[in-house]
């Protein structure tokens, strides 16, 4: 490779780059999975978005998390499959098409089922791929050759098989039960498709007269119109107020129907008057009481929400119109007691956006308990699936325990038509509750079976209803892999590895899948369920269409690029299951957090350009792996391999946010801000050739490793830089996303070295901060004194002295010990001390001889003995008894010479230079003399001015907080911000006062 190596453009253009690589990956089928390939299977099926939808922030977040996991496992060497697809969204498509027909002045019944479905499929071909194309903008590494749709032939076959098997096993049945009815879509909806909304309503109190004329009972209701279908009044049998009335009857106002008073423990004695009206055909609790007490079930409601013939004079009126008219009639007849304002919860249809109506209706149901109990066995005995975070296990388990039979029929045309065929010729050409039917896998099979029962002339009609969308979605993890056929995909990739989804869909989808999979495959559909939080808006509120506070991810992609948006969302995850908040300015469509990630991409781009411009046209492979000798090389390699280790550990345990943050800090801080700066001087043409090559090897090696580490998070920019760094030709089909993920080489990891470098970096940073505070000119070189009592710190600072001088622009660097260090230095025994010792011994011996001679003189000897004994006692007390005295005596006896003092490791502690500012790094004091570097008087004046301004702010903020009216009446966040501002101002003022004291 020559020095004419292609380099990166001056500026990073995310839009050109991202489109380029999305096209490259798809054209080259980079992510096409092969069930026969080696490697541990790793499969995630996409949570299928509604085919009517467009990309919202929830989709972007969910798929960014999934794609990061899949890309990581693919680079680990796993046989990865990310399977895409969409859901047919039965109610959503139906509603959309009916609105179109309404504009044209038509109804679906006028159009007919066949024409209606033709129109639906035409819409699917023309507009149904919108969200799929938007997912492509995210750069997700899905296998587009395996894209599925819940109404395609393969999945329809799976639905047909599942329905038939469940029916044959007695787990699907048809019956007349109370369901949630949506008058807008005129279809049953499941409990999961109902949103409870708090509304300001009323509680109406009515008198129901006793049939024997002895009085009346008072009932309270929020739905007066349903009284037309009342078939009893209920009280709690333990309520002493009404025990004597149980068994009597009342005469229902307006309808003049005699109905009983029953006792049932379901009645809450504290609600209203303790007497409740019972309408079994229009209330879930009343439905259960009706069955227990064998009450009549009177339906007063049509499917469009109007009242039917059982409502008497109110027939044909809309339910809410009838409500007003019923109240007016009861008031006129003297039965209205009072009306109370009442806030209560009303169930709304998620799709129709209108209150649902509990309605008796003939529907198809799944007997849920056997399926739920099987899923519970897997959970309790094998902890399967495993929930991350674990706290969601209990939520999931509680839901399985409480599940009731599942209504799976919908009165719509778009969807999987129920595979039941009726012999309508036996019931006057219509499908009724009593029409004979068969469930079959095809119309031909059904006809043959019905002919055998009712003869050749039997008239056969298929059930017009379709299945709940969640029925087909419940089969998604295995139907998309080919079930009920035993395909290679099913054998290799099932059960899938991980389900990534929001907590709000555990009940809608997760439980459906585990129940279906446990029953049909004998396994849970996934090993792990990674539950993530929601993407909240800029005010910390849940995004919704109702609130109109949604943030369009495509706007942010257009402004900052896909990688920036993806990285922002992942990096913001503080822990599994936690919500994230998206900074967003609605006026400008800007996001500071996404902009920060865009800046990170630019930082990486510029660093990569610098590195490649200094490799002399060589690739990392040509340069070879580094054999580090210098301190900075060993440090960056230690930090790199530690980050590799940490990143893999985080990703293996779903710590995606922590992994992203760790990479950000390493790439921006350690590599870009420090290592590149440290080696710049070694990259000069006149630098030592060996040192220069090691620097090049290290730069190339770490940069390529960074690109691999970051690839799952930011796939586009890393792909572009890697192709340029490794000089992959235009014809190559190689992709960074297919390279092996880095593995940590622990022999490179040196904790002590990293700790030492932290001290060097902190010292350099402190010197730079002091320079900035003192307004030292950027190019000016300064003198710095570093003082520490720690021998280890002095050794570290000395070893990194050249780095400190180079990066902090220091001319003269002095590294000294503290005052407390010098006295504790062990004394050195030199030649002079040895000579003194010999002399002392000689004179001691001479003294003994003289003493002997004196001792022979009468009286004089005794006198000297007394004196000697006294001196000895004083000497021992003064120099021997205490440790401190002994140490002092020893040091005085063996005091080091001047030459020894000069050669000692510890320099005498100089006096702090005058007119200097100081900073502290751990136990290191950093002194920066200002004389001759800045105008000290001007600097002092500047500090004083800033201090005066701060003191004014402190006075103002303190005044506001000392005002009781402000503290009590201002919004809590304003009070909190004021307190924070005061604390910060006081802190800054104290720093300035300290600076001024240093310069005084």
Automatic annotation (TrEMBL):
It catalyses: tRNA(Val) + L-valine + ATP = L-valyl-tRNA(Val) + AMP + diphosphate. Residues 940-995 form a coiled coil. GO terms for molecular function: aminoacyl-tRNA deacylase activity; ATP binding; valine-tRNA ligase activity. It comes from the Bacteria. The keyword Disulfide bond does not apply. It is found in: Cytoplasm; Membrane. CDD domains: Anticodon_Ia_Val, ValRS_core. Pfam families: Anticodon_1, CAAD, tRNA-synt_1, Val_tRNA-synt_C. A motif ('HIGH' region) lies at residues 49-59. Residues 935-1000 form the Valyl-tRNA synthetase tRNA-binding arm domain. GO terms for biological process: valyl-tRNA aminoacylation. Residues 633-784 form the Methionyl/Valyl/Leucyl/Isoleucyl-tRNA synthetase anticodon-binding domain. ATP binds at residue 545. Residues 828-897 form the Cyanobacterial aminoacyl-tRNA synthetase CAAD domain. Its EC number is 6.1.1.9. It is a multi-pass membrane protein. Residues 20-582 form the Aminoacyl-tRNA synthetase class Ia domain. The keyword Nucleotide-binding applies. GO terms for cellular component: cytosol; membrane. Keywords: Aminoacyl-tRNA synthetase, ATP-binding, Coiled coil, Cytoplasm, Ligase, Nucleotide-binding, Protein biosynthesis. Monomer. The C-terminal coiled-coil domain is crucial for aminoacylation activity. Catalyzes the attachment of valine to tRNA(Val). As ValRS can inadvertently accommodate and process structurally similar amino acids such as threonine, to avoid such errors, it has a 'posttransfer' editing activity that hydrolyzes mischarged Thr-tRNA(Val) in a tRNA-dependent manner. This is Valine--tRNA ligase.
